[in-house]
UniProtKB/TrEMBL annotation:
Domain Circularly permuted ATP-grasp type: 70-446
Pfam families per the UniProt record, alphabetical: CP_ATPgrasp_2
Protein name, as recorded: Uncharacterized conserved protein, circularly permuted ATPgrasp superfamily
SUPFAM superfamilies: Glutathione synthetase ATP-binding domain-like
Superkingdom in the source lineage: Bacteria
Length: 470
């Protein structure tokens, strides 16, 4: 059965959200559009929109390829998806509060204690502590895949330090500059308001020590980090300071940043530094990226850290496999958004099944990300499957496996016109005094024909994502 085509019902019949775009495209010269694509690439290069590829000496900094054809969603499609995302985000925050307090979900037998005990992402330092506003995951990027008209699955929850939002905003800005007539013809909901909403959301969870007008800063590991462009972009767009660990110190019980007028207290810090490097007094003593004393100030109510330390445990793919139970346990209702069916290799029967069907499955590390450390069975060689089977047998609890889904397709601009390619979607969610879901998100596209791998580090590209108002 062919994958679900988000634009076409048949060769000549277009789905409603794409009708105006399809009519516009038919009147375009493909060579002119190819020139526009080159113009967009030149714009991204001048702006410095790059990411670093670790472990590869050549071309360490790369552009993420951008495709001009937008992904378009009807209002009803988005509204149903957003309801499911909101429910999931509520459950994730409740789950994090619970596991760092009474662990009722473990006592109820809904989640094995072994998935928390000894989990490298679980921070004992957070036990018994409640962050300001009781918010753990202030910024979430939930990866969604689609397989049918009304069939969406959550691929993973990115609740630690989700990236990619700068590409969402720049993709939109580029499209609006190059094709203003398209936006005049289609009522597209805005995504460029994200920095405004992000700042408002962060200010709303200011700590008890704040005495009005919260001071927000973005903490970056520095220019060599793969997402440094995004850190600088968001700080600039929010109108706040971008700081490194060396710019900040604990003074008079507050975390303060160096300015031209002396040190100034920070109330909320949007950190893009991993837990292990956040505070050398508490975690890795050799870290030069973090802020000595920030955890103590945090627990005294002198600063808010977004996202909260210890949220990474909710990104664990073994815990992901229990998300339907987690959602129902904390919300009292079945999950509106389904998980991708998942085999936990730590379980003997599941491991047996995975080893017998390795060539049909996608196998991932429970702490993996970015498309690394995984096996895509249908495209792997026999030797690759055999090597991966040995790793599975050696450390089964480090892996989960999932079926190869027939991801939906969206057209890209190819040499001979439009051509379908597989996509996923990362909507961005802000959590503080309320839950704000940005209408759209980052669509990642597998540019190679037939490929299911959309990660930028593995050759994928991005698209502008349109949610129509009606």
């Amino acid at each position: 059965m062919p994958p679900f085509d988000e634009m076409l019902l048949s060769e000549s019949d277009v789905r409603q959200p794409y009708e105006k775009f399809f009519e516009w495209f038919a009147a375009q010269d493909t060579q002119d559009l190819a020139s526009k694509a080159a113009e967009a690439e030149s714009f991204f290069r001048r702006t410095g929109i790059t990411f670093n590829v670790y472990g590869q000496e050549e071309a360490a900094e790369r552009l993420i390829p951008f495709d001009l054809v937008p992904r378009i969603m009807a209002k009803g499609e988005w509204d149903r998806l957003a309801l499911g995302i909101e429910q999931r985000v509520e459950a994730l925050n409740a789950f994090l509060h619970d596991i760092y307090h009474d662990q009722e979900i473990v006592k109820a037998g809904k989640l094995p204690a072994r998935l928390i005990e000894g989990n490298e992402a679980f921070l004992p330092e957070m036990v018994g502590f409640t962050p300001p506003g009781n918010v753990y995951t202030h910024i979430i990027g939930t990866d969604i895949v689609r397989t049918g008209e009304d069939q969406f699955y959550v691929l993973e929850d990115n609740a630690r330090t989700p990236s990619g939002v700068s590409y969402m905003i720049e993709n939109r800005e580029t499209m609006m500059q190059m094709f203003p007539e398209l936006f005049a013809q289609n009522r597209v909901r805005p995504v460029e308001t994200y920095p405004h909403h992000l700042r408002r959301s962060l200010e709303a969870v200011a700590p008890p020590a704040c005495d009005g007008n919260p001071c927000v800063a973005v903490l970056t590991p520095g220019i060599f980090n793969s997402a440094y462009f995004e850190h600088a972009f968001l700080a600039d767009q929010m109108g706040v300071e971008l700081v490194e660990g060396s710019d900040v110190a604990e003074i008079d019980g507050r975390i303060q940043m160096r300015t031209t007028e002396g040190y100034k207290p920070i109330d909320v810090i949007y950190r893009r530094v991993d837990d292990a490097f956040l505070d050398p007094k508490v975690f890795n003593p050799e870290s030069m990226l973090g802020i000595p004393g920030i955890m103590d100030a945090y627990k005294r109510g002198a600063i808010t850290i977004a996202n909260a330390p210890g949220t990474g445990i909710s990104d664990d793919k073994a815990i992901y496999s229990y998300m339907p139970e987690i959602v129902e346990f904390y919300t009292g209702k079945p999950a509106m958004l389904e998980n991708v069916p998942t085999w936990r290799c730590a379980e003997e029967d599941s491991l047996k099944y995975v080893l017998e069907h390795l060539s049909e499955l996608v196998v991932k590390e429970v702490h993996g990300s970015g498309g690394y450390g995984m096996l895509v069975g249908p495209t792997a060689s026999k030797a690759e499957c055999e090597a991966f089977a040995a790793k599975l047998k050696e450390n089964p609890s480090n892996y989960i496996a999932q079926p190869t889904l027939a991801l939906s397709t969206v057209p890209i601009l190819a040499e001979k016109g439009l051509a379908p390619r597989h996509v996923d979607l990362r909507p961005f969610v802000l959590v503080s005094d309320k839950i704000r879901i940005i209408p759209g998100g980052l669509t990642r596209v597998a540019l190679k024909e037939g490929s299911l791998v959309v990660n930028s580090s593995q050759g994928g590209g991005t698209k502008d994502t349109w949610v129509l108002r009606d």
